[in-house]
Structure formats: structure tokens, C-alpha cells
Design goal:
There is one protein chain. This protein is about 0% helix and about 60% strand. It contains no helices and eleven strands. It is globular and about 45 Å long. About 25% of the residues are buried.
Length: about 130
């Protein structure tokens, strides 16, 4: 998927059980020019935020980030245990096989914001990954 010289691949979200209100989405972004991911949104959740995870001693910590640098020509991976997109306040169950939309807001070197619509595949909730508990 190319839009404004932004390529997004391997976009997926973790499926949920009926009452679950939080999930994570993962993808790979490649930008032709240096830019930054500065925001996200989706109609399936009341809040959509960029988060990162890292080890602090022996404890895995998760925290929100304002932006993620997208170096020119390099792929930035959003994967379990690192950068990811938190879907909070889910308005529906995310079922395996469905596709949900997520909008990425990318800021270019010119400071203009471009919106990139991504179709995200919902995968099995049983896939192993790092916990999304805060």
C-alpha cells in the first residue's frame, strides 16, 4: 500500500473476547522521505495511541509516545514487545478474519500532516505476544 511515499505492510491486530476493551495493532512502515508517525485513529476504538515497550531491569514497561521517527528508506517495525498501536475503549469485538481501519498521521519534513488509511487484519487472539496490561 503506497500513499504519499509511505508503504505500510504486515498490518494486523490481536483478536479479542466479547467484553475486552483493549487490543494492540502491529505493522511495518517505510517512508521514502524522513518523516514521523505523530498520531493514529480508528472508528473501532475511542482512543488509539502509539505505545512502546522496553525492559527496565527485569520488568517490561509500556508507555505512550508522542511520535516515532520514520527514517528515509528504512522500515520501522511495530511488533509485540516494542512499538505498537494501542486500541483502547473498543466499540466492538475484534474477530479473527475481519479487517479494521486505522488512520496513521504522518508528518513530513515540510511539517504537513498526511493521513494514510490502513486496512488491518484481525488475527487469532491466542497468538503469543507480550502482555498489554498496564
Amino acid at each position: 500500500m503506497a500513499q504519499h511515499d509511505i508503504e505500510v505492510s504486515n498490518a494486523w491486530a490481536r483478536g479479542t473476547v466479547p467484553a475486552q476493551k483493549v487490543s494492540g495493532a502491529y505493522l511495518e512502515i517505510r517512508s521514502a522521505a524522513a518523516s514521523r508517525l505523530v498520531g493514529t485513529s480508528s472508528p473501532v476504538a475511542s482512543q488509539v495511541k502509539i505505545h512502546n515497550m522496553m525492559m527496565d531491569g527485569n520488568v517490561m514497561k509500556m508507555f505512550p509516545v508522542d511520535a516515532v521517527a520514520l527514517p528515509a528508506g528504512k522500515t520501522v517495525k511495530f511488533a509485540p514487545g516494542g512499538y505498537h498501536i494501542m486500541l483502547m475503549g473498543l466499540k466492538q469485538q475484534l474477530k479473527k478474519g475481519e479487517t479494521i481501519p486505522i488512520t496513521l498521521r504522518i508528518e513530513g519534513a515540510d511539517k504537513k500532516i498526511r493521513e494514510v488509511e490502513v486496512k488491518v487484519e484481525v488475527r487469532d487472539l491466542a497468538l503469543p505476544a507480550t502482555s498489554h496490561n498496564h
